[in-house]
Specification:
The protein has no helices and 20 strands. By secondary structure, the protein is mainly beta. A four-stranded antiparallel β-sheet has the order 3-4-5-6, with no helix packed on it. The chain has a four-stranded antiparallel β-sheet with strand order 7-8-9-10, with no helix packed on it. A hairpin with a 7-residue loop joins strand 9 and strand 10. The radius of gyration is 18 Å and the shape is globular.
């Protein structure tokens, strides 16, 4: 797991491997940083000495000096959940220093539920919550998204060809109702989320994508109460193997990249 950081603003440092023991990195990997100097590099891999999805766990290598040095990685997910090998994951740190990780389980090879890990203590201890169940024997090659919104973190993920989103309670880590993306679409995947200063949120996702197949982009904007503000947006031409990203502009408008 290679990591690099921008120094005092002039150049990136030489890349270095922060993985010391938990080898077997596959689809999962993400980095998060807060304003207090903490950096978290996360991935999922089998417990050393084991193999297979059922033995995969989420690992975190933590830095407390803005990414200059890292400690040895530690497992933070429950061993019983496993980890979906080719599925992506997402890490995020909010303004209060809480850390969130979204990952897909692989319990018994068929329970590929979406889990949220949350640490209120700057990555020292994590608690796990099941967000959504999905039973399938094959890896869906999914990704997930996290962002900070009004009143809590925003999470988005795929379940059985549909994209869902939820607001996460900042006090408990529990979710406030999973909401499916509106309308009808085929093979919805790869969500992205963003929120602006007005409390509005954007959910974007792809449609029709699959193995070695491109697709289309769709998005929906919600007000601070979670209600759609306008009609759903669409754009064609998401390339094969591409993902989407979103961010808010200072004037409150949203930008989606793909």
């Amino acid at each position: 797991m290679l990591y690099t950081r921008l120094d005092d603003g002039t150049a990136f440092e030489p890349e270095r491997n922060v993985l010391q023991a938990a080898a077997g990195l596959d689809g999962g990997g993400s980095v998060a940083a807060d304003t207090r100097g903490s950096v978290y590099v996360t991935w999922h891999a089998p417990t050393p000495g084991t193999k297979g999805e059922k033995n995969r766990r989420v690992w975190v290598a933590r830095s407390s000096d803005d990414g200059r040095t890292f400690g040895r990685e530690e497992p933070v997910s429950a061993a019983a959940t496993g980890g979906c090998g080719c599925c992506g994951m997402r890490a995020f740190a909010d303004r209060q220093g809480a850390v969130y990780v979204l990952y897909r389980a692989a319990r018994a090879g068929v329970h590929r539920d979406m889990y949220l890990l949350r640490s209120a203590r700057e990555g020292t201890t994590f608690e796990g919550y099941k967000l959504h169940e999905w039973q399938t024997a094959t890896c869906p090659m999914s990704t997930a998204a996290l962002a900070e919104g009004a009143g809590g973190a925003l999470a988005a993920w795929e379940t059985d060809g549909q994209v869902y989103s939820a607001r996460i309670d900042p006090a408990t880590g529990g979710r406030f109702g999973a909401v499916a993306a509106p309308g009808e679409g085929r093979r919805r995947k790869h969500p992205a989320v963003a929120a602006n200063a007005r409390g509005e949120a954007l959910l974007a996702w792809t449609e029709g994508m699959g193995w070695n197949r491109g697709g289309a982009l769709a998005w929906q904007v919600y007000d601070r109460d979670g209600k759609p503000t306008a009609g759903q947006g669409h754009a064609a031409g998401v390339p094969t193997w591409s993902l989407v990203a979103a961010f808010p502009r200072p004037d409150g408008r949203f930008v989606v990249l793909y």
